[in-house]
Design goal:
With about 850 residues, the protein is mainly beta. The protein is built from 10 helices and 58 strands.
């Protein structure tokens, strides 16, 4: 037995979270999750007591089931636990939850965050099923494959059976299949080459064909979208892709290949490459013999690496290796510089395997049975991983071939040989450290990396599997004790705590990174990224030194700015309707120290993806004017006079009012000008009030409204855009879809001097702004209901197509019945006056006649 040196340290994490489903929650409409803190040596009653103490100290845990979705619970003081109710059916079917609490200590102890898994038992066999086991060829090494986004679900392949686990090998269940329409094998079992898990189903590779088995446990041959024969390999995505902020492309999670064809997919597969395409990418003659040697998913989630073995460009008998990459996001192929500088024949023979390192730039490990090659940061560093004595690991280990290469999120690389010799290094280092022997050479064992980052040893004992933890950190510290392996820094940490961020136009984000190191070590924070051209990156470093210990605090400011008002093709540039854009997309940012070391600790989240574009839940809302309460009236429909429509007609237009779509009406007095207030939201989170220009249009074609300001009043230097001019200039858009005719893609400002005719500046100015003096004015003839659509017009405000609707009801206009009453009253007054005049006339005639008939005689 080799001598070991134990490293003993103190931890502040004395407690862990425990999660369990409440009884009967599977059948209930609501899932209840009880959450308690527990020490490994405490019974439930003591755990309940400690949970109450943490609650009193302010503890409030969060359960996360995706990088962007979480829920908090309510503390049940009687039970002494947190209860969380999940009503989403999709959430109830999830198995993996991440529990994270606040930094609250109890007796100088904290609670460690971590994963927890629920798993379901295998379904029963269908009635009359003929169950058959699946096995590797006799004498094969154990093989492990896990599900991409559920590391606790894994397959174990052996020569005595195939097993599945849903709880990180806490329990194992043997997989049995019913042959369905397939003939039962004479030896009593199917012989496997490989297997992978994909969305609840399992794909098996047997005799060059792919078979699949779903929850009904029937084994079927996969022929509808994959070759029926000649399949050379299956490869699963080893890391989760769900945190990648890409909505328009469904990333593949399984790769299947033949000698010269590549298929990618999930539940459905599509051919992505063949011999002719690979020859074109590599610029090789069509007569060249091309074979796919290995396939692996890339350093970034959209990338897939293909190792191609082909003849040289000038000599068909001269074979060499090439690495080409396919970007599923961009839909493009490109050749990697890795292997390009190696001479033909300098690599030992295959078969080869690939494994990419999670990184902003392509970083890959390539190995065969005896040697391990590496390439880092887009081939800026490359070579052979070697021990102090040799790069041939077969000779170094005493005759064993490379069996497994395990890579975790902290960049730990563990190489396991078939004779159970173990080697270790950190990504970025070129020297392997031989670890102490853990199992005897004759033991059949495999390594498995669990969801909590804990490495486990799976050991075959006769026809059973034993599982135990492998203390990697302790083994590494013991192996390097007394050697030259040191770390150039003490600690390194940063603020990139989530895997995905979103940046819209005009927004910025700040990150920080801190590294503490001994004096005169020359350690810096290294920032690298993919598509950094989409962002402006500004860094500021503050340096401190005390007692020969240096501290560097680096602030990283990221923002996107470009003037899109002059863009010739706005929609393509901002990716409104196009898939790949030169000014929007996903930036992958990586922050690491510039000097790695085999004994250095790295945070597991060194990489974040920043989506420069429209955030998924961003939208605008119209703020309700102050003093206008929301009253849901008994209104089902209303009428619009046909004379006020954009296309006038004799009959009135009857419109149904959709309360769910439009919400409450804004009741506005007809003589009061109105300016809509627009607020920007992410989901239900208020961000800010919108100060950008916007336009409105009435959805039903009403024209009996206007604007109080003219183009001249607001200071236009030339005629501004109007709805009439925009609709006339876009003949392909009808008046029923005016929002397509005018928007950020064709907006031009009237405040810029351009040569030509000034135009008619007395027209109403139809563009609104929160800080402007332009308002909507209403009809002075009749009250009515207006349904407006509003759209942000500023091309530099957002990547999103921001639109909203609101409804206004005006009141206070004198109705037409009052006009009839006024006319009638005037008529009556006229008749009375006329009657008085007539009476006066006839009275005058009578008096005049009497004077004629009885003249007055002057007595004088």
């Amino acid at each position: 037995e080799e001598e070991r040196h134990l490293h003993i340290g103190d931890s502040f994490f004395c407690f862990s979270w425990y999660i369990a489903k409440a009884p009967g929650s599977r059948e209930a409409a609501v899932n209840s999750l009880g959450l308690v803190t527990t020490n490994f040596f405490l019974i439930l009653q003591q755990s309940s007591f400690i949970s109450k103490q943490f609650f009193n100290l302010g503890q409030d845990p969060i359960i996360k089931w995706s990088p962007t979705k979480s829920v908090q619970g309510d503390f049940n003081f009687v039970k002494g636990c947190w209860e969380i109710h999940l009503t989403d059916n999709r959430v109830q079917s999830l198995q993996n939850f991440w529990i994270e609490g606040k930094v609250v200590g109890y007796q100088n102890c904290f609670i460690a965050s971590g994963y927890h898994t629920f798993h379901d038992v295998e379904p029963l066999l269908p009635p009359g099923g003929r169950e058959v086991p699946l096995r590797l060829t006799r004498g094969s090494q154990l093989s492990v494959a896990w599900e991409s986004c559920s590391l606790s679900t894994a397959l174990l392949l052996s020569d005595f059976g195939t097993f599945i686990t849903h709880d990180a090998f806490g329990t194992l269940v043997e997989i049995l299949v019913a042959p369905h329409r397939l003939a039962s094998p004479a030896e009593g079992h199917f012989t496997l080459t490989d297997a992978v898990i994909v969305e609840g189903s399992i794909l098996f590779l047997m005799d060059g064909s792919v078979y699949w088995r779903s929850y009904d446990r029937l084994l079927r041959k996969r022929e509808e979208d994959l070759p029926s024969t000649g399949v050379r390999g299956l490869q699963y995505r080893p890391t989760c892709w769900q945190s990648y902020p890409l909505r328009d492309v469904e990333l593949s999670i399984i790769a299947v290949w033949t000698d010269d064809q590549l298929y990618l997919g999930r539940s459905t597969f599509y051919k992505k490459a063949d011999r002719a395409l690979l020859a074109k990418i590599l610029r090789l003659p069509s007569s060249c013999n091309i074979n796919i040697a290995a396939v692996a998913f890339g350093s970034r989630p959209p990338e897939v690496g293909v190792l191609v073995e082909a003849c040289g460009a000038h000599d068909s008998s001269d074979a060499r290796l090439f690495l080409v990459l396919y970007d599923e996001e961009a839909g493009s192929w490109f050749q990697s510089a890795f292997l390009a500088k190696l001479k033909p024949g300098s690599l030992s023979r295959g078969p080869f395997r690939l494994r990419f390192v999670q990184s902003a730039l392509p970083s890959v490990l390539l190995w065969n049975k005896e040697a391990l090659y590496y390439s880092s940061q887009n081939n800026s560093e490359y070579g052979l991983l070697r021990t102090l004595r040799s790069a041939n690991l077969t000779a170094e280990s005493g005759g064993g071939s490379i069996h497994q290469v395990i890579l975790d999120l902290s960049w730990n690389v563990v190489v396991k040989m078939e004779n159970n010799a173990l080697y270790f290094c950190k990504v970025g280092m070129d020297e392997l450290v031989r670890l102490h022997m853990w199992e005897r050479p004759g033991t059949n064992m495999a390594l498995y990396l669990g969801p909590k980052g804990q490495m486990k040893v799976l050991r075959q004992v006769e026809s059973a599997i034993e599982v135990h933890r492998y203390p990697l950190s302790m083994e590494v510290k013991s192996a390097v004790l007394g050697t030259a392996h040191t770390c150039a820094y003490f600690t390194f940490q940063h603020s990139m705590d989530i895997p995905a961020y979103y940046l819209d136009m005009g927004e910025q984000m700040e990150l920080w990174a801190q590294i503490v190191y001994p004096e005169n070590m020359g350690v810096n924070v290294q920032i690298s990224g993919h598509r950094l051209d989409l962002l402006h990156v500004a860094t500021r470093t503050r340096f401190e030194i005390a007692s020969q210990v240096c501290t560097k605090n680096t602030t990283i400011k990221l923002y996107h700015w470009r003037d899109y008002s002059k863009s010739e093709n706005y929609r393509e540039e901002v990716q409104v309707f196009s898939l790949f854009s030169q000014t929007s997309g996903v930036v992958t940012l990586e922050v690491v120290p510039n000097l790695p070391g085999n004994t250095c600790d790295l945070p597991s989240n060194r990489i974040s993806h920043i989506k420069v574009g429209c955030p998924p839940k961003r939208h605008i809302r119209i703020s309700r004017p102050w003093g206008t309460p929301c009253e849901k009236l008994d209104l089902k429909n209303y009428s619009i006079p046909g004379s006020v429509l954009s296309n006038p007609r004799d009959q009135d237009l009857v419109v149904d009012y959709d309360w769910e779509y439009l919400g409450c009406l804004f009741r506005i007095y007809y003589a009061t000008p109105f300016l809509p207030g627009i607020d920007l939201y992410d989901g239900d989170t208020f961000l800010k009030s919108v100060e950008a220009n916007f336009i409105v249009w009435e959805e039903n074609g009403r024209t009996d409204y206007s604007f109080n300001a003219s183009m001249e009043t607001v200071g236009c230097l030339r005629e501004a855009q109007t709805w009439s001019s925009m609709l006339a200039g876009n003949g392909s858009f009808s008046s029923g879809t005016p929002g397509e005719a005018w928007g950020p893609h064709n907006y031009t400002s009237c405040f810029e001097v351009t040569p030509g005719v000034l135009g008619e500046l007395s027209q109403p100015y139809e563009i609104l702004n929160r800080s402007g003096n332009n308002f909507i004015t209403w009809s002075q003839v009749q009250s009515g209901i207006y349904v407006f659509s509003v759209k942000i017009l500023d091309p530099n405000f957002s990547f999103c197509d921001l639109q909203a609707v609101f409804a206004v009801q005006t009141y206070g206009v004198v109705t037409s019945n009052f006009g009839v009453f006024t006319g009638t009253t005037a008529m009556m007054i006229t008749l009375i006056v006329t009657g008085v005049l007539i009476c006066t006339y006839f009275r005058y005639i009578k008096v005049f006649r009497e004077m004629l008939n009885n003249p007055v005689v002057d007595k004088q």
